[in-house]
Design brief:
Main location: membrane
Strand order of the largest sheet: 1-8
Mean pLDDT: 89
Keywords: Cell membrane, Membrane, Transmembrane, Transmembrane helix
Largest sheet: 2 strands, antiparallel
Number of helices: 13
Membrane topology: Multi-pass membrane protein
Strand content: 5-15%
Protein name: ABC transporter permease
Subcellular location: Cell membrane
Shape: globular
Length: about 375
């Protein structure tokens, strides 16, 4: 005896798009940016300012002069580095939300040698030791959740997120305890500034971290696209069962990839303390690890596309700082403008990948 059932389709449902033409995809992105500018312009107008003048000031304040251009590049360096760091983990569908903590772990390790070995090692050797220490510390911090995931199947999102707070607490302990004899302008303990021997040299007015990060970006592109290990990462990301059936050691791949991911984030920590700030603070990561997730996602994990996305976000951030000063726009409103642009950019990628299907009136399906 057969059973005849009838049910109504949902009013609105999502369906994954087939690959759309490149021109159409870029047209959607251009429309999203235009809508973001219009929406932001309305907010600026409500605040009593001319949107065109404010937008022009944002561009001028981030790119107009060599001095501000260097500051914009400094903001882009850690963003790009952190995005490249999480790319292999995300490619493997291991959701590494812990780049923030891995950056701090690398910064702590590098700072140890900067503070206590600056007089004992020649400058080139000291900088190399600091970099290696940062990479190893970040790699180990990334390896911890990978071991638990591979062995006991723990939730990597929560695990990596919680590790951020642990290492941040340790930085605060170092500031208030063994490494923090100095006081800042508000009377709070801080870690002393590094000796000049522990600071990165400059190239074109910016510390050489930008050269290092660009080199790592190129290497990561080749690693993910052309290497055997990159292929294994892609297979594990697509299907763990397929990887196991093909004879791959999935647990080893997870551990190896997360050590690499954390290691690059640790390198970013070294660049931050040795190049950007000259010391270690609880703001060394400063939300970079979280913003980098947006960079990586918008770039669809393509390291070269991350360069453009990181540059755009750095321009927005520096421009937002500028208009706060020039137009006395509240920091929250300036940050809102950046958030609006990101919202529309992320939203357009959704509509590029998916389409909404609205059920026609009275439409039914039968089983």
């Amino acid at each position: 005896m057969s059973v005849h059932t009838e049910h109504r389709e949902p009013l609105i449902r999502l369906a994954k798009r087939d690959d759309i033409p490149r021109a159409q995809a870029w047209a959607i992105r251009a429309a999203a940016i235009l809508l973001a500018l219009v929406t932001g312009g309305l907010i600026i107008a409500v605040l009593g300012h001319n949107p065109i003048q404010v937008y022009a000031s944002m561009v001028e304040g981030s790119l107009g002069k060599s001095r501000v251009l260097r500051e914009t590049v400094k903001k882009a360096i850690p963003l790009l580095g952190a995005a490249v760091a999480i790319a292999p983990a995300f490619k493997m569908k291991f959701w590494n939300i812990g780049a923030e903590g891995q950056i701090l772990a690398g910064g702590i390790a590098a700072s140890y040698f900067a503070l206590f070995w600056a007089d004992s090692l020649p400058r080139p050797v000291l900088l190399v030791v600091m970099a290696v220490a940062g990479i190893l510390a970040g790699g180990v911090w990334g390896l911890i959740p990978a071991v638990f995931k591979a062995r006991w199947g723990t939730n990597e999102t929560l695990f990596t997120l919680m590790l951020n707070y642990i290492v941040l607490g340790f930085v605060r302990y170092l500031q208030a305890g063994p490494w923090g004899p100095d006081l800042n302008a508000n009377g709070y303990p801080k870690i002393p500034m590094f000796d000049s021997a522990a600071l990165l040299p400059k190239a074109l007015g910016v510390h050489i971290g930008w050269i290092i990060v660009l080199a790592v970006t190129a290497l990561m592109f080749g690693y993910l696209k052309y290497s055997k290990q990159g292929y294994e990462i892609a297979v594990v990301g697509e299907s763990v069962r397929t990887a196991q059936y093909a004879g791959m050691n999935v647990s080893h791949i997870i551990r190896r990839t997360m050590f690499l991911s954390g290691g690059i984030a640790g390198l970013v920590g070294f660049l931050q303390v040795s190049g950007a700030s000259g010391t270690l603070t609880e703001n060394t990561a400063g939300g970079i690890g979280f913003t980098a997730i947006t960079v990586a996602w918008l770039a669809k994990l393509n390291p070269f596309v991350m360069i453009a996305i990181a540059a755009l976000l750095a321009i927005l951030e520096k421009g937002a700082d500028t208009i706060q000063t020039l137009y006395t726009i509240p920091a929250s409103a300036a940050d809102m403008l950046t958030g609006i642009v990101l919202f529309f950019m992320l939203g357009c990628e959704f509509f590029i990948s998916y389409r909404l299907i609205v059920r026609g009136k009275g439409e039914r399906t039968h089983e």
